Request: fold
Amino acid sequence: MNWKQLFALLLAVAGLAAKLSAQGTAFMYQGRLNDNGSAATGAYDLRFALYDAATNGNAISFPQTNSATGVTGGLFTATLDFGPVFSGTNYWLSIGVRTNGNTNAFTLLWPRQPLLPVPYAIFANSASNLLGTLPANRLTGTLPASAFAGYTNTVALTNAGNLFNGSFNGVFSGNGTNLLNLNASQLTGGTIADARLTPNVALLDHNQTFTGANSFTSINTFTNRGNYFVGSFFGNGLVGWIPVSGTYTQAMVDAGYLLTNPGLTTVQLPPAGQLTVGDIVRISGAGAGGWLVAENSGQSILGNFASYRNSFLVALPITTLPSDDCYGVAASADGTRMYAVGNFTGIYASSDSGHTWSQAGSLAGSWHSIACSANGKIVFAEPSSSGKIQVSVNSGLTWSVTAISATGNFIACTADGSLFFSSNVACSGNGTYLAKLASGVISVSTNAGSTWSNIANQPAASLSCLAASSDCTRLVAGATNGLLYASSNIGVTWTPITIINQFWSGAWMSADGSKFAATVNHNGSINGGIYYSSTSAQPNTISTNSTICGSQGSAVELQYIGNGKFMPVSSAGLLWAN
Reply:
């Protein structure tokens, strides 16, 4: 639809500026709307927003939608209220339009319309535009002390009877003979006799014992070989270790951090003002929840990291499956033994990483979700309709019914197959760390499901499937009629793995997060199938300005190389970057 808009801006102003407060901040906007070159008539939805530039710029307000605005002969009137935002700054009005009842996106009208000076009458209520000098003889009453704050002109006090009560900043002349209660911390010259000093003051010609915490910021030389030091030492290559039991710590230069918390622990790199080339920061992940290194603005880390950004998603062959309408997938830890269920009869298995498929056992009917142990031998299957969960302990050759009822949600089990989870819970470890998808929100538990915490950022709306590494630091999630996403830092940031909207229905991830698979429903003209990805054990060389992270047992030594850049000079375990 071809829209064209000619506008006129009107502001109803009644009375003096002093009376404006009763009128609020609303004003009237009138305009002319053409629809396909002709004057529009009918009901239209109009959306208005303020910006600080004619193009691009920053939004000053949330969009305001006037639904079912009447337009007659092309003319319309709308009441707008953006609140008290008019302070003398130039603003432009962005207008979007669509026919009333239409759910499509608004069509933006260009160019944005500059707001003429009339709306700024709202700001006159505060009299902020007073110019010139106000004569002193116009003032009455007593000025408060705050009225003299910042006064810098000279004041001559020549009366000897003047009294001072309070604080004084400035210079007194004289020898100070009659001063009382003098604060010694304000002395800036002269020499104080040793007798006036407290015993805590170190004297150059005395032996000293330092019992408190002391920082020596200048260069100090210790020439006596009898000097003896106990503790950790920091600086110039000496990196002491600091245990961290919490989930966050601000790093300092030339320090090592031993992280022991069972949850994900964040280490914030030192700010730019504290860094010199060659400074070191070490991180060692002793805690089961893994760790994350967060960078400050303008900082980046260059090195070899595993990354979902470089993942290659492969569509597995499905010619040996009855249908491409797939509901769920599971696999052994190495991704060799795989299981798939969908809108077809039975459970299908593959022993060659999904290249060929054959029916496992003799189960009939359609199955909604599938899970298996790390060795691929213990398999759980959930029926599509009401019924009981089935289990196999011999890679799907034979099945037995359990007492667990189907819930219609995706299922999971621990790596050894000893524990089973329903209700949209993901697990690939021993069951201590769990991820859950409920009402489109991902949450994580570090205590076997006793408590749950929502992750920092959700990748998208309408999430339909979820899988997690054993410590839940790596996640993969798919959306209905959306994309597939992966995160290597427990949801702080997400990487889109696909670029085309599909109907994602199930997901699986290995315990270390290096492999994952996901299924897609066949919906209309959108094909279904099974997709698989494996991040090489040889990391990818990338530069990150977001975060790097690792699991329990991994460690890294980062060295500052200048220009806001760090690089790992040594590491243990696989390091991840989003």
Remarks:
- Residues 51 and 59 are 5 Å apart (CA to CA).
- The chain has three domains: 3-126, 240-307+544-577, 310-538.
- DSSP finds no helices and 42 strands in the chain.
- The domain at 310-538 is CATH 2.130.10.10 (Methylamine Dehydrogenase; Chain H).
